[in-house]
Amino acid sequence: xxxxxIIEIKxxxxxxxxxxxxxxxxxxxxxxxxxxIIRHPxxxxxxxxxSSFKGKLRSLxxxxxxxxxxxxxxxxxxxxxxPCMCGKCDICKIFGAHQNxxxxxxxxxxxVRDFPLTDESxxxxxxxxxxxxxxxxxxxxxxxxxxxxxxxxxxxxYERVPEGTEFNVNMTLKIYxxxxxxxxxxxxxxxxxxxxxxxxxxxxxxxxxxVSFRNLQFIEKDIYEKISVE
Length: 230
Known about the structure:
Layout: E1 3-15, H1 50-65, E2 69-70, E3 73-74, H2 90-95, E4 110-112, H3 119-132, E5 138-145, E6 152-160, E7 166-176, H4 181-197, E8 211-221
Antiparallel strand pairs: 1-7, 1-8, 2-3, 4-7, 5-6
Helix pairs in contact: 1-4
């Protein structure tokens, strides 16, 4: 198996609605939120973890291709909700054969790195912090409705990335000599289109996490390019 090509996938992920990917409560101070978003530990800027994005993309594609099978039998018990682990299908080839150490597919084809804020969004969020005191995010109050009385109870406040915020898409695709490049690229494009019709992060059924992609590029890199060393 020979590596033939590397394709960089670049573009912008635009938040059409507020986006929430939960973070740790370990650093919550007095008066802080109980439901914070994930942030960079140094800059405190929000970001999209590569693991969250890759998992969502894989899950959507598995639902389309029916990849909940192993060896011809439907997965049951603790494996029922796990990623596909057949080690034979295109989903396993692209995203990795989950917990299958005997597969013959070779290395995982898709690498998804963390998506950082764009420079323009950093400027807007810093401006909002100076003018409105927002900590690179917004807060949204929610509650539950009692069915018997129609009154609200269990109030809670969630933190989320504001609508209009943008992140830099940062993925790499490896193509080997045994691969059908067109097929693999099309599957990834299909997953991205599915995501635009679904949601990223949590609380999608309540309006969170609608995203769209802008200026997506699949840039082929020359792996044989000579690098001069001075």
